[in-house]
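During the second year of the project, the team shifted from modelling isolated chains to modelling whole assemblies. The rationale, set out in the original proposal, was that interfaces cannot be judged from single-chain predictions alone. As a representative example for this report, we include one of the complexes processed in the last quarter. Its constituent sequences, exactly as entered into the pipeline, are reproduced here:
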Amino acid sequence: MKDKVVKILTFIAAVIILIICGGMVYSLVTGAVPAFEKFGVDFIFKKDWQYTPDNEQYGALPFIVGTLITAFLAVIISFPFSMAVSLFVGEYFKDTKVAAFLGTATELLAGIPSIVYGLWGFYVLRPIMVGMGLSEQGFGIMTSSVVLAIMIIPYAASLSSEFIRMVPNDIKEGAYSLGATKYEVVFHVILPAAASGISSSYILSLGRALGETMAVTMLIGNTNTLPTSLTDTANTMASIIANQFGEAAGLKLSALIAIGLLLFLITALINFIAKMIIKKYAI
Amino acid sequence: MNKLKYRSWKNKFGVFIICFFSLLTAIPLFAIIIKVFVKGIRQINFDFFTKTTPDTFDAMLAVNNGEVIPGGVANGIVGTLLMVLMAAVVAVPPGILCGIYLSENKKGRFSSIVRFVSDILQGTPSIVIGIVVYAFIVVPMKGYSAVAGAISLAIMMLPLIVRSTEESLNMLPSSLKEAGLALGASYSSVVFKVLLPSAFGGIFTGILLAVSRVIGETAPLMLTALGSSMVQWNVLRPSSSISLLIWECYNDPNMQSMIWSASLFLLFVVLLLNFIAKRISLKWRM
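Output from the structure prediction step:
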């Protein structure tokens, strides 16, 4: 009797997760319907964002582009650093005190709240950007991407180092016994063997970067036009929602929810791809 | 011979590059902590924890006179405490139960769907969760509230707790469960008296990390809890949080030093939670 209750309870808890996710999709879709009814699929490819009372025009393209550029740029910038950390912790200095220290430091980096990153970016990084002459105010895609890159290093680094650790010892030893140097073992044996796992960890960190809100909102400059260069100001999908949701109503609210739906779909797709790669190629 | 020299040089160069970039990575952490500490420590005093945020005018007067800004972040502390506590109460039981389900039914088709959905939920941007809670809670209740904020935080915590529970249960040797069942213990008492206590360290660490992850969340709270300038114990009213206060002060040029002290406090709490979690997981490791 009691056993049955426990089994049913755990089952209900599992169903709750499904209900929450289903409810999320349901509420996003119903909220987005007015915007898609008004603009059709065109909503995704339109670049105007105007809220003059008689002629409201909303399109998601500038924000989709802004989101993709900042996130990809962040992953590219973070790549050498997270790669170095994962090799440092997972292979070169495996199980040493220094590696443990570096591992903890990167873990703590993941714990710092987004808004604190935003402040730091605003007061420390932005002046540096201005000093380098990259842009007048220091706001923009580049600044946000650098902060995003710091924020996602821990995700990519910790996951990649797990995959690097999982490479079986016998193939490494095989290479060493053939006279390979450490460098050759790392770049010709370990990295190819762990490549799929490592790439999935970067896809997951891309997913993180896509949805990051506060730090980007504080640094990207918040302009609703299509960005033309990497130092341009822009808006991401998350930052336009954070900026305008409070005073939005009617069609604009629906347009913002539609952007939320698109953001959800993009991140879900990215996570799905990463999971599939891990599942298929896991060592 | 030349070739050998080149290879050994390349080998050394590889080590150097790895060390160089790795050490560079550690810099931002310390840069952020030091910056926040230096800028924020001036403002940390007794009032900081007991008084609410001052209005802009008082802050401006104090700044012009070169004094510390009067007041503190008591409204934010109360709000964060209430919301995180409610979120934990809501998220922990179903999270642990769902983790038990997943670890007890490892292979099932339904389990793999649940696992997948919980991963999707974990990857969902916090602002999207804010929108959903806005539509489901704030609109029907006709107002922003601490409850709505707590629910958005709970949704963020849930997949983290599910995963950490599942993983810590999976790490237990199966002989433990078999021994319990062989002694004639019922399934429920094996789960609650053998498995859960043995995995307690891992599960508790997971909960602490989930709390530390949501305690600094701002985006979903902007859409659900809104913020409040006074200490608000009524959970059905709009509430502030430390992170929301940082956001408000950031938008107010007179409150600059308040941002840093609030950030310092937030950072301290988050790092402390991480530290405790690490300690516990080291102690309970089998």
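Chain A has a mean pLDDT of 91. Residues 155 and 173 of chain A are 29 Å apart (CA to CA).
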